Amino acid sequence: MIVDRPRVVFSALRGNSGKTFLTVGVGACLTLRGKALSPFKKGPDYIDAAWLEMATGHPCYNLDLFLMGREGMLSSFITRVQHADGALVEGNRGLFDGMDREGNYSTAELAKLLQAPVIMVVDCSMATRTIAATILGCQLFDPKVAIKGVILNRIGGPRHEAVIRTAIEDRCGVPVLGALPRIQEKIFPERHMGLVPPREHPGARRAIEEAARIVDGHIDVDKVWEIARDAPAVDFDVSDRQQEERPICSSGRPKIGFIRDSAFWFYYPDNLEVLEQLGASLVACSALDDKELPPVDALYIGGGFPESHAAALAANTDFRKSLREAVEAGLPVYAECGGLMYLGKELLVEEKVFPMTGVFPFRFVLGKRPHGHGYTILDVDAPNPYFPIGETLHGHEFHYSHIPEWEEGPFTLVFKVKRGQGIHGGRDGLLYKNVLATYSHVHASGTKGWAKTLLEKAFCYERNKLLEQAWSVSGAPVVTEISRTSRHSVSPGLMGLYQ
Questions:
Q1: Residue 299: which of 250, 236, 257 has the closest Cα?
Q2: Residue 466: pLDDT above 90?
Q3: Residue pair 103/97 in contact by the 8 Å Cβ criterion
Q4: Which of 72, 120, 233, 458 is the most buried (most CB within 10 A)?
Q5: Is the per-residue pLDDT at 5 higher than 50?
Q6: 396: which DSSP letter?
Q7: Whether residue 460 lies in the annotated active site
Q8: Can you tell me the distance from the alpha carbon of 344 to that of 354, in angstroms, rounded to the nearest whole number?
């Protein structure tokens, strides 16, 4: 498919160089100029993506070759950008940094794949002409990466800027698009996992407006857009254009709930959208505000910051009780990271103990440093409702919590951890009844069967309820047990109920 849309990638020499501030500021400026942008975040990050979404007014999608695979990532990009005026992509870490020695999953490889120009954001603290030498090194390191501009960050004054600007433009042959001074105030405050999410920042909108004001006053935003417009038309060869998104039912949409509030909001937009495209009716609920779990046929609990809302989660005893009762009744539940912690017995935060749902009998303890951080590779080696034995999952984990005291019980761990930390003893994937909870986040574009199987479990659960209702009227015996080890396609007879 041919894509002929403006697009640009913001990258840097390392993390914490100011990429997010610049990308958010440029995105807000271009949006104020009337551009309908499709923002993207390279890598698995949720928080930066949330800021980009607020800045542009459009959902921010992740682009991650490891999590999504080439086909899934390109399909997602093509789908979003063809309906926008252009794409704004924020890279992660340094330009050539990735999880392997060859940099196959780096921002540079992403830029080459998208044939998108790159604008480098450079922290100029305590350096002058060496900045030009470094940019030249990036150009020579891989000439196929189209570095088309540089933005100077944390400039000390006019002379500092002039020396660096002259060196870059003379030696590297690329324009300096502007220079930001050192900003003393933390417009986007940080904490242990990066920026404070906009959901928890009372002045988030004002922070974006301030970023836009600073960027507009120091950066040639029109030149940035001109560089984006110079991106060539590309005929992307994508043979597997989201085949999984075809609806598997024409009516009778099962209800799949997902907890979305300030405590749980780590959801890749693609994951929710593919569930809807397959035929699910999504039902948002809140573990903070709702009195009980709404009537649903399956539940998806994403990650987030339950530790920051532990007191409020603990105080909502009715919701916790209704969720635990639904689990005991066989409700299919898929939980990731923060969702896993919420399904535990207790959460220990700064020496205070907060009761959680108690689905699993574990106390999760928050530490001062990450207990698991980075990409994960998991082998499915035990029966479970969601993945076949032998499948390998690519995921990502970033958690400060762990289980200090393990105990045996009516549950199993169904994943072998080949890369990453996991839950316990080199394993992940806690299974109890129809609940599967893991520290790893997965992306639907790279984990093809996940959404389809969650929907199938919802179908089966809904069918059980219909049978219970029918048999309770007729007085016939009720047989509703659905094996948690099965993973079959929805049968023709079952499909007939919804078509």
A1: 257
A2: no
A3: yes
A4: 120
A5: yes
A6: E
A7: no
A8: 10
Buried b / exposed e over 274-307, threshold 16 CB at 10 Å, is bbbbbbbebbebebbebeebeebbbbbbbbbbbb
* pLDDT, tens only, 288-317: 999 999 999 999 999 999 999 999 999 999
Instruction: Report helix, strand or coil for 86.
Output: strand
Contacts of 237 (CB under 8 A, 6+ apart): none
pLDDT digits (tens, 9 = 90+) for 100-114: 999 999 999 999 999
Numbered ranges of CATH 3.40.50.880 in the chain: 247-454
DSSP strand E in 43-108: where? 61-63, 86-90
- DSSP tag of 391: -
For 176-225, what is each residue's pLDDT tens digit? Answer: 999 999 987 778 877 665 788 888 888 899 999 999 999 999 999 999 99
Segment 392-419 mean pLDDT: 96
Catalytic residue among 138, 172, 249, 337: 337
43, two tokens = 């890598």
Q: Does domain 2-235 have CATH number 3.40.50.300?
A: yes
From-to residues of CATH 3.40.50.300 in the chain: 2-235
Q: How far apart are the first and last CA of the chain?
A: 32
Phi, psi of 142 (to 5 degrees): -150, 95
Residues β-bridged to residue 291: none
For 247-454, give the CATH class: alpha beta
Render 190-235 in DSSP notation, one character per residue.
EETTEEPPGGG-TTHHHHHHHHHHHHHHHB-HHHHHHHHHTSPPEE
Strand-pair partners of 151? 121, 178
